């Protein structure tokens, strides 16, 4: 396995006159050996471009990519020692499930006893043992994709395994089970894994570190908890969570933020650069509705069973609050924000307390 270093990576598909012409703007990251990383972001943010640069299908316009300190920027895919799992299954129909898994190891001359042991582990972790001897041809799409995942994971000589939205064809109820299987395999085999998805649940449950991409940039690399509690960019706050973080324009006065004509006490003093657009971010989970706080006009209540999502406005801006199951929505509510869960943003980037 190897550490992956992205060194000043930029990529433009056509002539690049300005920063906006780059599909990837400037990536500088070191992803650790044995780490499970999810690349998460909306359609068009550059996930596939980055994955192709890592696999070698694409050479970046600028910058270098290193595996374990070795520059591989100019190397073709076959010289990079990378395993890839795609959206749709790639299996040998005439082989059994176990033979499919053994194939990449046989090809590399791995001793038979080791092949047997590794294949058995992968079959077990992906819950394929019961159908190990069945031919792949007659299997469901779910099981075929499990074989593809297993074929990626069975090798121990790869620099990294890249997954490109591998659970697209999988039945939603099976996804949890498969992600758990991937996690078990990762814990046991310690591969460096890069997993592309636009599904936040998939990213958060798969990865130790989630790399959030937006418009050709990496806006945050963090644990699921960090992305939830301290989004470094308003986009992360909006993209992670359902509904996403509320964002309200404010003016700062020391430890107070002014929202419309009202005041919110802040956990600390914040200073924003002169002229910056300042916003307060608070997740719906940390908004309570009661008799005190900011005037809140309810527009809609979504009762989703385990909780109520109350949509409304504060000073003309949309704000959502999540109330626990059984809680009543007050008739003329006022909204309070949990003090230690407020983040402040200047021109979309999170401010540290002054
Ligand atoms: P998706 O989730 O839809 O696959 P993505 O996050 O993987 O999106 P990319 O496919 O990497 O995003 O695309 C990033 C940007 O580069 C987009 O603006 C896209 O239109 C552009 N792009 C991607 N491939 C090409 C190409 N072959 N030629 C020109 N532009 C491209």
From TrEMBL:
It comes from Acuticoccus mangrovi. This is ABC transporter ATP-binding protein. InterPro entries: AAA+_ATPase, ABC_transporter-like_ATP-bd, ABC_transpr_FbpC, ABC_transpr_MalK/UgpC-like, Mo/tungstate-bd_C_term_dom, NA-bd_OB-fold, OB_MalK-like, P-loop_NTPase. PROSITE patterns: ABC_TRANSPORTER_2 (PS50893). Transmembrane segments: none annotated. One of its GO terms (molecular function) is ABC-type ferric iron transporter activity. One of its GO terms (cellular component) is ATP-binding cassette (ABC) transporter complex, substrate-binding subunit-containing. It is a peripheral membrane protein. Belongs to the ABC transporter superfamily. It comes from the Bacteria. The lineage of its organism: Bacteria, Pseudomonadati, Pseudomonadota, Alphaproteobacteria, Hyphomicrobiales. The keyword Membrane applies.
